[in-house]
Amino acid sequence: MEYTDKREQNKREIALLIVYALGLSLLANIFILRVLPKLVSNMSNYFGYELKSSDLLTKYCMGIGVRVVGILIFLYIIKKFDFYKLFTFKISKQYIIISWLFIGYIIANIELGDFNKVNVVTIICMIIEAMSIGFFEEMVFRGTILPLFLEKWGKSKRGILFSVLVSSGIFSILHLSNLFTGELPIAVFSQVIYTCIIGIAFSALFLRTNKNLLWCCLLHGFYDMASGFGDFSKVLNANQEVSKELVSIVPYLINICLFIPLLIYSLFLLRKVE
Known about the structure:
Keywords: Hydrolase, Membrane, Protease, Transmembrane, Transmembrane helix. The chain is built from ten helices and no strands. It is mainly alpha-helical. It has one domain. Helix 1 packs antiparallel against helix 2 (56-81). Mean pLDDT is 87; it is low at 235-245.
């Protein structure tokens, strides 16, 4: 009877922690990244200045602004939980060696665009926004949600793996919100799978680098920056656009398969986490 009660209590604790983690994730994704930009846009319209999301500079500045707000909010949450005491910030050569495969993915993720009609300010803002994305998302998931689970279940390898998988799963599931932004469903579901793998990779690096949150923030920022250069590629004209009906599932499956080596390496890193 006592064993059953403890088991039920453990299930309730797991459920409560997951709900709490989802609440923090929704704060980050819905309020900070969805609602806040709309509030800023509406206020701007009220004062007679229209913010155009199609303008890259406006998009980057808005992205930087809302993520700075998010970073400040989660800095407060991290301090409130005393999680900042867990983190290290000194970067060593060993971290670079451990991260060799992910650095390779960053290089492979570089998209070269057309810089002829882009000014330097826009490029700088893209870089700052990419880094702000990295810092914000890592502070939410590796700085807050993962330690939340590790505090409860981080004393065993099984508990560590559970914490990593659940926090990474939450990170990936939030990308389902892109279904409401006009993206193709197959593209969104593909994104959910590979972002889960990326979440596992960052969690493994976080744990193997002695919980070095700064290193994870920098790598995440560089990864987003690499793909951010693709924003400057020439816009397809009407006769170059691909019909949604003709989209093949094959490229998305290939894209997912390309992340399998990263998943295997990340699970290998997690095996050695004490």
